[in-house]
Amino acid sequence: MSDQVLPVARSVTALRGAIRGWRAQGLRVGLVPTMGALHEGHLSLVRMAKERCERVIASLFVNPRQFAPHEDFERYPRDEAGDSALLAGAGCDLLYAPERSVMYPDGFATNVIVSDVSTPLEGEFRPHFFGGVATVVAKLLLQALPDVAVFGEKDYQQLLVIKRMARDLDVPVEIAGCPTVREHDGLAMSSRNAYLSADQRRIAARLNHLMHDAIKAAHAGGAIGVIEAETQRHLHAAGFTSIDYFAIRDAETLAPVSDLARPARILAAAWLGKTRLIDNMAV
Ligand code: AMP
After folding, report:
1. Which structural domains are found in the chain, ordered by start?
2. Which residues are annotated as catalytic?
3. Phi first, then psi: what are they for 16, rounded to 5°?
């Protein structure tokens, strides 16, 4: 523990020591995994965890295993002191900020692969991604063994992957999802929004607006495939440089759908220059 506003644990031993003390008092413990550069979206997860548990830990670890070599690991925004102050203000009790060598000591050789729900969409465009996420989240859950771990619906497919991993591996932790927090113009908050120029930031809001339009069109009985294709054209016209996917899928399996008979989710990933934005909503 240091003398920061928020106590910080940097080793598994320190983390478990703090949790042992809370458990001895009969307190429930919540965990909020993050990669830092925190915003209101992250803080909403902390508040949800705090509603359900007397003590809340936020982890801060920019996980190298979920970035491909050509991605933004090096330039990913980092501000531990700022994050620590925000977390303290949101009611967090402990920051867990392990070094890379704590998470991946020499000789680390395990990779947690969740098939099925990892395969489409993000899995197609970032094939390394969910293996990295499932591995680091499995470690965080086992290190802390919280009662509840809270994740954002902002990363909807990631939430499905983590739920499946925890269920399949009998990890005794409840996985809770928290609604997406947005800017006033609808843009989903993201640490990566900091990369956007003023022009790109204006265009970025169109992604969510076009998702709303697509949802309306789907409810009006439009053909799903046509809505997906037309929206991709609108995104290009709005200034998005390229579109990885814009899809209406089954909300549970992410399989393609031809109607709205079952709960559906609209999911998108699109580029503005070198910045990749993702968003999703219930249809
Ligand atoms: P990250 O630091 O981007 O890995 O995100 C850490 C957690 O915060 C994940 O569970 C994300 O889904 C969640 N999160 C990120 N942005 C938002 C947002 N705008 N609203 C709600 N949760 C979010």
Report:
1. 8-178 (3.40.50.620), 191-282 (3.30.1300.10)
2. 42
3. -70, -30
Pairing mode, strands 94-96 and 148-152: unpaired
The strand pair at 264-272 and 275-282 is best described as antiparallel
Helices 80-89 and 40-52, packing angle to 10 deg: 40
Query: For 4, how many CA atoms within 13 A lie in the half-sphere containing its CB?
Result: 23
107-160 pLDDT tens trace: 999 999 999 999 999 999 999 999 999 999 999 999 999 999 999 999 999 999
CA distance readout (Å), 72 to 68, 145, 195: 8, 30, 11
Lookup: tokens for 262: 């079952």
Identify the residue whose C-alpha is closest to ligand 1 atom 14. 152
User: What separation in Å is there between the alpha carbon of 38 and the centre of ligand 1?
Assistant: 9
Task: Output the pTM of the full model.
Answer: 0.97
Q: Is pLDDT of 1 > 80?
A: no
205 Cα–ligand 1 center, Å: 18
Q: 135 and 48 in contact (C-beta within 8 Å)? A: no
